[in-house]
Amino acid sequence: MEEAKSHSLEEDFEGQATHTGPKGVINDWRKFKLESEDSDSVPPSKKEILRQMSSPQSKDDKDAKDRLGRKMSIQEYELIHQDKEDENCLRRYRRQCMQDMHQKLSFGPRYGFVYELETGEQFLETIEKEQKITTIVVHIYEDGIKGCDALNSSLTCLAAEYPMVKFCKIKASNTGAGDRFSSDVLPTLLVYKGGELISNFISVAEQFAEEFFAGDVESFLNEYGLLPEREMQALEQTNTDEDME
């Protein structure tokens, strides 16, 4: 069973960072280096070294295995680390790896805004028919209730930051259970996953200061582990760090 799982994962990631060990990373870098070179500006001798460094291997190709497994020669090392252009090439390589990983790991439905639910039936349908992997955050509110407007604005910001989470809002009077959601318990946040209620926060505005913003709501939800990690955060940080270098 484990062998089958391993094979499946290997197939899913085929073509992206194909070598995972230290030697494999070096070989991937060599191949990327070759593909990044301008063929018109590369001397034949340099191009040949790059070609040899990145040549693919078959399982039965002993010479190729030796070539992959050996240490880099001084000429190869100097070729890869010789100047500023190589630093830029390395940055592009790292960025491409991050983008490839992001693309492979990004799955599931995407949202990006707050859905207005008009009826109790829509509310139930959203909870029952959404994919099981999706976290659904529902804000039950009413106009004129303290904290409801601020929470709606905060959730609009968070919906853009966490497009894999489905954010919804519905007026208490439209739920069909208005007696359960009186003004005393609003604003209320309900969090669902897989059709099940996993968190229930009544009068949630009391958890914040008089004025609160998206960051406050984000921190609150993160305290309870209700938000996933921002999927682009690592990639954006990598790009920012590289731009500053």
TrEMBL record:
GO cellular component terms, A-Z: cytosol; nucleus; photoreceptor inner segment; photoreceptor outer segment
Start-end of Basic and acidic residues biased regions: 1-10
Any GO BP: visual perception
Record keywords, A-Z: Cell projection, Cilium, Cytoplasm, Nucleus, Phosphoprotein, Sensory transduction, Vision
Primary site of residence: other
Cited InterPro entries: Phosducin, Phosducin-like_reg, Phosducin_N_dom_sf, Phosducin_thioredoxin-like_dom, Thioredoxin-like_sf
Family statement drawn from the similarity comment of this UniProt entry: Belongs to the phosducin family.
Protein name, as recorded: Phosducin
Taxonomic lineage: Eukaryota, Metazoa, Chordata, Craniata, Vertebrata
